[in-house]
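Researcher: Going back to the complex we discussed earlier. I've cleaned up the inputs and rechecked each line, so this should be the final set. Can you rerun the prediction on the complete assembly and write out the structure?
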Amino acid sequence: MKRVFSGIQPTGNIHIGNYLGALKQFVELQDNSDCIYCIVDLHSITVPQDPKKLRESIRNVAALYLAVGVDPKKSTVFVQSDVPGHSELSWILTCCSYTGELSRMTQFKQKSKEKESAPTGLFMYPVLMAADILLYDTQIVPVGDDQKQHIELTRDLAVRINGKYGKDTLVVPEGKYMKSGARIMALDEPTNKMSKSAENEFSRISLLDPPNKIKKAIMRATTDSDGEVRFDVENKPGISNLLSIYSVFSGISIEQLEKKYQGSGYGDFKKDLVEVVVDALAPIQQKYNDVMESGELDKILKEGAEKAGAIAQKTLRRVKENFGLGL
Ligand code: AQP
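Model: Rerun complete. Updated structure for the full complex:
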């Protein structure tokens, strides 16, 4: 079975972009692969977090993993900072990375706004992400396509290290991206990706949003003035984004949707989309409440960390041996 690894930051409520780009793949892969899914809390402190809210958010993301269908009997689910190997391998990789390649990372450039006071953690984020992946001899990484550059860096680091320290040192992973849903855009500015930490809460739909919030976000979503429901990312990014969301949640192809709404305005299309999204999220919200009430979450995360920790130790022993570290 192939080894799969991925993670999501506990930086706020998981939105439909995280779900359609990454989480949906988590569930699909777990029947035929050895899956390890992590709540990457060390990544979240690359920007300041309120400690109380962060702890809540970690449990919230873990519960959402289970609510969308990640099954702890099939997949290993744990919190990143519970396995110290992530930080240890991250340092080893740091020493093999170049400041030039890290400076070129788009996410760093966007989030740091090229300020001198940008946190060093933001700069090192891709190296920690590479450590997360390489620590588990991962072959497949299901992610949204905003992570492509970081996956490429992870591959570069693994190949570079294998070239210098022996080809068995690290497994070179591959990214896996959805055909549709790999990049869901912000509802207010459809040229930016949907993001947990964007200021405008109506720019996203979170998995736990109530129906009235979903309705407001969709009805206010930026479209264009020609009123034609047609998929054209370049000229009609807003309606194209809504068409993608409608299509992945309903299973109806974009071509069929274009036909269905030919001649009707955006209003009818948006009203139907509200219903589709509300119906799709209702069972997830119900399961989330069940998980939270079950009191099983902490046990699942503890067992997950033990399982992940054992795999991590094996990789670290091999890496340290090849680097000549320790006795
Ligand atoms: N808009 C998106 N469309 C499709 N996939 C997306 N992902 C994120 N945004 C979209 C994928 O979700 C996974 C988890 O992302 P993350 O929490 O590690 O960090 P992120 O990519 O930085 O996500 P956010 O929502 O934008 O969070 P903040 O605002 O905290 O930075 C990844 O697989 C990602 O590709």
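Model: Worth noting: The pocket of adenosine-5'-tetraphosphate is lined by residues 8-9, 11, 17-18, 20-22, 143-144, 146-147, 182-184, 193-197 (CB under 6 Å).
Researcher: Good, that matches what I expected from the previous run.
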